[in-house]
Design a protein that fits this description.
Bound molecules: adenosine-5'-triphosphate, magnesium ion
Strand content: 15-25%
Structural class: alpha/beta
Low-confidence stretches: 241-251
CATH architecture of the domain at 1-80 and 163-170 and 194-251: 3-Layer(aba) Sandwich
Strand order of the largest sheet: 6-7-8-3-9-10
Length: 251
């Protein structure tokens, strides 16, 4: 497999506080890669830098060999990259269908008019299991459906690579299983996935490789089995980590 994302020495300081510190890793084309770590570890900040929401303080980001450091968020859909946000950002007063249709105007295979955008949206909603809710206003949906809608909006841009930031947070076990199945289906369709997740069951069942952050630093990398048995990772989660961090592992 070839490398799709390569970051080197990625660092982000917010007013002197290092949220991400000298992080380097690669992710493979076609794979599902995971990123885990306690609250505040710098996971979302790492995604935000890779996806162009914050410029890194230092370090470089390559996508398929090309240096994309400093590219802006709006350029990413054209590169075939899509993401979800940890805090869902639906267009609350639009229907589910039109939320997804509005995303279909972005990306390399973007819709040329509203009719085509709604066609793409309808297909995406069928794929993600939201079709029966197409006429519901986004703000009237609960967390599980809003998480799914976030994924549908990202998928409507027809990405090659999808970044998922805690799309299973707040889901019950059945909904989590559904989300795992959906992510696997997206990946089987040829989309490379990079996901941040606290639900270890999902990480173990989906990810070939996992990167672990703690206090902004990469502390481990390997298969789910390798990182879960890594003494430093175990100490971070169970030893010196907070009770809340330990609870995440039990998920
Ligand atoms: N825009 C910002 N301005 C200032 N500080 C920030 C900003 N974004 C994140 N931080 C800080 O950077 C650190 C890392 O935050 P980040 O959101 O990346 O963590 P995370 O690993 O995603 O945590 P969680 O699991 O809770 O989502 C935290 O200390 C956070 O308070
Ligand atoms: Mg986060």
């Amino acid at each position: 497999m070839s490398v799709i994302i390569e970051v080197n020495g990625l660092t982000k300081s917010f007013r002197g506080l290092k949220a991400v510190s000298d992080v380097s890793f690669v992710t493979e084309e076609g794979a599902i890669t995971g990123m885990i770590g306690p609250n505040g570890a710098g996971k979302s900040t790492t995604f935000n830098m890779i996806c162009g929401f914050y410029p890194p303080t230092s370090g470089t980001i390559r996508y398929r060999g090309q240096d994309i450091t400093g590219r802006r968020a709006y350029e990413f859909a054209d590169m075939g990259i899509a993401r979800t946000f940890q805090i869902m950002k639906p267009l609350g007063n639009l229907t589910v269908l039109d939320n997804v249709a509005s995303s279909a105007f972005f990306g390399r295979h973007r819709a040329k008019d509203l009719r085509q955008a709604r066609e793409i949206a309808a297909e995406t909603l069928e794929f993600t299991g939201l079709y029966t809710k197409r006429d519901v206003l986004a703000r009237e949906m609960g967390t599980p459906d809003q998480k799914r809608l976030e994924m549908a909006r990202a998928l409507a841009t027809k990405p090659d690579m999808l970044f998922l930031d805690e799309v299973m947070a707040g889901l019950n076990p059945t909904e989590t299983e559904d989300a795992i199945a959906l992510i696997r289906r997206i990946n089987n369709g040829g989309v490379t996935i990079f996901l941040i997740e606290h639900i270890m069951r999902a990480v173990v069942s989906l990810c070939e490789k996992v990167i672990v952050l703690h206090h902004g630093e990469k502390i481990a990398e390997g298969t789910p089995d390798q990182v879960m048995n890594d003494p430093i990772v175990m100490e971070v989660y169970l030893g010196t980590g907070s009770r809340e961090d330990a609870a995440h592992v039990e998920n």
